[in-house]
Amino acid sequence: MTTIITKYGYGKPSQEALAKGEVAVDLSEGILYSSTDGKDVIELGRGELHWDNVTGKPDWIVEGDGYVDIEELAARVGVNESDIAALKSAVAGLEQDISGLEDRIDANAKDIADGASAIEANQLAIQTNKNAINTLNSQINDPNGLADQVGENTTNIGTNAGKIKDIEDLLDASLTGLAYGGTYDAKNNVVLETSDEGANAGLQAGNALPTGEKTKGIYVVVTVEGVLEGTGGFSADGNAGRSDKDTAHVGDWLVSDGQHGWILMSFGMDAVNWGMIGGSLANQTDLVTEFAKYLKKTDTIDCGTYS
Fold first, then answer.
1. Beta-carbon neighbour count of residue 286 at 10 Å?
2. What is the dihedral of CA 185, 191, 192, 194, to 10 degrees?
3. Would you state the pLDDT for residue 210?
4. Residue 243 to residue 227: CA distance in whole angstroms
5. Segment holding 220, helix H or strand E
6. How confident is the model at residue 307 (pLDDT cuts 50, 70, 90)?
7. Does the pTM of the predicted model rise above 0.70?
8. Sequence-ordered alpha helix ranges (H) in 142-192
9. pLDDT (tens digit, 9 = 90+) per residue, 40-51?
10. In terms of Cα–Cα distance, which of 68, 16, 13 is closest to 43?
11. 3-state SS class at 120
12. Percent of the chain with pLDDT over 90
C-alpha cells in the first residue's frame, strides 16, 4: 500500500514555504495551510476549535473552560425580548403615524386641488376687473372722455360764473335809484303813458321804448301782456336780446340800463314785496304821486261778488 505523507510541520509555515496550491499540516494545532501564489500562506481549516481560537468573544463567555454562562445568556435574551417588544411597538406606532400621515396627505391634496380652483377663479376675476378698469380708464382719458368733459365743463362754469357776475353787477347798477317812467303795452310794443321822468328820458305815449344813456334807471310797468319786440336787453351768453322774444306779463317791469336796452324783471307772475325793490319807497316821489292818483290809505276797496 502506498502512503502519501502531506507536508507538515509545527506552527504556521513561513512566507514562501509552500508552492501554489500545496497543502501543509500544522501538527501542533491541527490546522491546514496552503498558498495562492507560492508566496503567501493562507489558513484552510482547523482541527479542534476552542474558545482560545475565537476572537471578539462577548463578555458573557466564560474564559478558560469555554463554557457559556447560561444565566447570563438568559438575561441577555430577556433584554433582547424587551427590546424586540419595544421595537415592535415602535414599529406599530410608526405604521399608525404613517397611516395618519397618508390621510393628511390625501386631505392636503384635496385642499391643494380646491386652492388651485380658487386661484383659477381669482385669476378670472382679476382679469375681469382689469378689463373693467381698462374700459373705465378709456372712458375717462380717451379724447372726448370724462376727463375732457370735466375740463370743458369747468371752463364753461368759469365762463358762466363771470357772465352771471356781470349780470349781477349790471342789475345792481341798474336797480339803484330807479325812476318810474310809465306804463307799457308789451303786445303792441308801445308806451301807453309816461311820468315826468319818463318823458324827460325820451319816452312818448304811442311809441316804442327808446334806448340810450338818457333812459338809464327808468322802468316801465307792463299793463298789457305780450311777447317783447325791439326791447334789446342783456342775455346770459353776453349777447343783446334777452328781453326780446320773452313774454312779459301784467305787473312785470322793463328796466333800462342805458346801454344794452330794456331788461325784463318778471314780477307779474310772482309774489313781490317792497323788500325786493331797490331803494326806498319814500324816495320814489314819482311813484308815490302816481299811486296817489288811484288809491289812498283811507280808501275802501270793494272787490264785489262772484257767482
1. 17
2. 140
3. 92
4. 9
5. strand 218-224
6. very low
7. no
8. 146-174
9. 999 886 655 565
10. 13
11. helix
12. 19
Sign of CA dihedral 211, 213, 217, 218: negative
CA distance 175 to 169: 10
Q: Which residues pair with 9 in a beta bridge?
A: 26
> In the structure grid, which three cell numbers stand for residue 67, read together?
463554557
CB 215 within 8 A of CB 202: yes
Q: C-alpha distances in angstroms, 67 versus 50, 61, 64?
A: 10, 7, 8
SS3 of the chain: helix, strand, coil, percent, to 5: 40, 15, 40
* Pairing assessment for the beta strands 31-34 and 42-45 based on DSSP bridges: antiparallel
pLDDT tens digits for range 158-170: 776 766 666 556 5
Distance CA 213, CA 230 (A): 17
| φ/ψ (deg, to 5) at 277 | -100, 125
Confidence band for 306, pLDDT divided at 50, 70 and 90: very low
**Cα separation, 64 vs 56, whole angstroms:** 15
Instruction: Specify the DSSP element, H or E, that contains 68.
Output: none
**What are the CA-CA distances from residue 259 to residues 91, 166, 176 (Å)?**
112, 13, 15
Please tell me the distance from the alpha carbon of residue 77 to that of residue 71, in angstroms, as a whole number. 10
Cell of 179: 325812476
State the residue for C-alpha cell 399608525.
96
Q: Which residue carries 264785489 as its cell?
A: 304
